[in-house]
Design a protein that fits this description.
Zn(2+) binds at residues 47, 256, 281, 285. It catalyses: tRNA(Cys) + L-cysteine + ATP = L-cysteinyl-tRNA(Cys) + AMP + diphosphate. Pfam families: CysS_C, DALR_2, tRNA-synt_1e. InterPro entries: Cys-tRNA-ligase (IPR015803), Cys-tRNA-synt_Ia_DALR (IPR015273), Cys-tRNA/MSH_ligase (IPR024909), CysS_C (IPR056411), Rossmann-like_a/b/a_fold (IPR014729), tRNA-synt_1_cat_dom (IPR032678), tRNAsynth_Ia_anticodon-bd (IPR009080). Keywords: Aminoacyl-tRNA synthetase, ATP-binding, Cytoplasm, Ligase, Metal-binding, Nucleotide-binding, Protein biosynthesis, Zinc. The protein is α/β, with parallel strands linked by helices and 525 residues long. The protein folds into three domains: 16-333, Rossmann fold; 351-456, Four Helix Bundle (Hemerythrin (Met), subunit A) (Up-down Bundle), CATH 1.20.120; 460-523, no CATH class. The chain contains 16 helices and 15 strands. A four-stranded parallel sheet has the order 4-3-9-10, sandwiched between helices. Strand 1 and strand 2 form a beta hairpin. Helix 2 crosses helix 3 (104-121). The two termini are 33 Å apart. Mean pLDDT is 87; it is low at 3-11 and 186-214.
């Protein structure tokens, strides 16, 4: 993976174009100018995978969307710290591990590696850090105690009055609850199981029972949500931690507040995730962090769903295409293009047509880059591509990306420059402005790199080789058809026709060699 687009110099300067960046904020439903907390630096926390099973295309869409957002911020000259967590313990991981005869931490790590492999295959820049929930239990315990001490959480005793392990956030004590989603807080529970339903849909087991219907003893209000959970009798000993509140394990919402604070501080610039995490997960994160006396994210950004035939893609609906399944049928570059070519807040309909359009884009872009490089005699160095700042990119592209990362309009600007360059190359070769073409090629590749799609990025070397192989196979079929016609002409003693075919092939750069066993061909040197 080429990480050269991630600047390492702490003195990197912010471009003039950065002043025009405007981003949507889920909390206030507006696109507003972006101004980081610390000049020149941006801190982002993105909710990552719950590693219970294999990733599907819906999961990857969010990761890729924030990869593009990050790449644009880098292109604007910001230093970006991106934290993407791994939830490696929850009810589903424990349940599925037990059902499959696995240790829960073994299952979590198997699927964590699958997610990592999918990210790498799709060309996602590695996060600055990727913390696991189970690695931050002390921070979670400290956070719970802060919230209890400030009067916004309560520990539930058992029948003997001892700590039971259950701790809940007291929603009624926090009047600001609902500030993110503006939902009515008097009717809807905000517990972890509601979050699981919200993310994945109700999970029905083979007996038709809802597997999320766990009792939550000691809750004072149905809106209250778990900060710490007492273990179930079926939970293994390795999934329990001793705390002042009793033995148990963390609530899902608590993890992200503890980890974002650990790595980004009490306040940071952007919190991201899928649209379905707004409530209750992100609402609860915001409430518990503020209730602890901390600041939190200054801006919330959420990606829309991937749909199939109008339905949200999810495993519970049986329409969640696995990443491995899709990549077995299409090059990773093509899949990435299909997933990033729609603005992050727009629903993305996954279909054969979207993949066919991505295939067409692959050919069109690759043909332009190859042709321009041949005419110029060289390609821009990769360092030139990654080092070209936003101030040196076409104005219409910069305006599109600064308009809440409008990739659709950005791609239109990219294709407009490709059409202009193709027209210049189609015209009189003597009139071609080679300096202009070199600049156009550099800009096209830099714009593609913003989307993680520069075809000459070393990461895509395998895809380029595959494309070359397919092109060679097509050329071989066409040339052999010509050679068969030539052989027939020679058998018919139509030597003028045979010589004409040979001359046409030679003019196209194909050298023909005749031998007793038949004619062969090669590209002329």
């Amino acid at each position: 993976m080429d990480t050269s687009s991630q600047p390492q110099d702490s003195k990197a300067s912010v471009s003039l174009a950065a002043a025009g960046l405007r981003l949507y904020d889920t909390a206030d439903h507006r696109v507003t100018p972006f101004s980081p907390i610390e000049p020149g630096k941006v801190g982002i926390y993105v909710c990552g995978a719950t590693v219970q099973s294999s990733p599907h295309i819906g999961h990857i869409r969010t990761t890729l969307a924030f990869d593009v957002i990050r790449r644009w911020l880098l292109r604007l000259g910001y230093q970006v710290t991106l934290i993407r967590n791994v939830t490696d313990i929850d009810d589903k991981i424990l349940t599925k591990a037990a059902a499959n005869g696995q240790r829960w931490w073994e299952r979590a790590y198997i699927y964590e590696r699958e997610f990592t492999h999918a990210y790498e295959t799709m060309g996602v820049l590695p996060p600055t850090y990727e913390p696991r929930a189970t690695g931050h239990i002390p921070e979670m315990i400290d956070l719970i105690q802060r919230i209890i001490d400030r009067g916004h959480a309560y520990a539930v005793p058992d029948e003997q009055g001892r700590p039971s392990g259950n701790v809940y956030f007291d929603v009624a004590s926090w009047p600001e609850y609902g500030a993110l989603t503006h939902q009515q807080t008097g009717t809807q529970p905000a517990d972890e199981q509601a979050a699981a339903n919200d993310r994945l849909g109700p999970s029905i087991d083979t007996d038709g029972q809802n597997t999320y219907a766990d009792e939550e003893p000691g809750k004072r209000d149905p809106r209250d949500f778990a900060l710490w959970k007492a273990p179930k009798p079926t939970d293994p000993a390795t999934a329990r931690w001793q705390t002042p509140f009793g033995t148990g394990r963390p609530g899902w919402h608590l993890e992200c507040s503890a980890m974002s604070h650990r790595y980004l501080g009490a306040e940071f610039d952007i919190h991201g995730g899928g649209l379905d995490l707004r409530f209750p997960h992100h609402e609860n994160e915001m409430a518990q962090s503020h209730a602890a006396g901390w600041g939190f994210a200054h801006r919330w950004m959420h990606t829309a769903w991937v749909t199939q035939k109008g339905e949200k893609m999810s495993k519970s609906l049986g329409n969640g295409l696995s990443v491995d399944q899709v990549l077995s049928q299409h090059p990773a570059w093509v899949v990435r293009y299909a997933l990033v070519s729609v603005q992050y807040r727009s629903m993305l309909e996954w279909s054969d047509q979207s993949l066919q359009e991505a295939e067409g884009a692959y050919e069109r872009i690759g043909n332009f880059v190859d042709r321009a490089g041949r005419i110029l005699g060289a390609q821009p160095e990769r360092a030139q591509v990654t080092g070209l700042g936003a101030d040196d990119l076409p104005e219409d592209f910069v305006q599109a990306m600064n308009d809440d990362i409008n990739v659709s309009v950005g791609l239109a600007a990219l294709y407009a420059l490709i059409r202009q360059a193709n027209a210049a190359m189609d015209a009189d070769p003597d009139a071609l402005d080679r300096k202009w073409l070199a600049t156009a090629l550099l800009r096209v590749r830099a714009m593609l790199d913003v989307f993680g799609l520069d075809p000459l990025d070393p990461h895509w070397a395998g895809a380029a080789a595959d494309r070359d192989n397919r092109a060679m196979n097509t050329l071989d079929a066409l040339v052999h058809q010509q050679l068969q016609e030539r052989d027939q002409a020679r058998k018919d003693h139509d030597f003028a026709r045979a010589d004409a075919i040979r001359d046409q092939l030679a003019a196209a750069g194909v050298a023909v060699a005749d031998a007793p066993a038949g004619s062969t061909w090669d590209l002329s040197r």
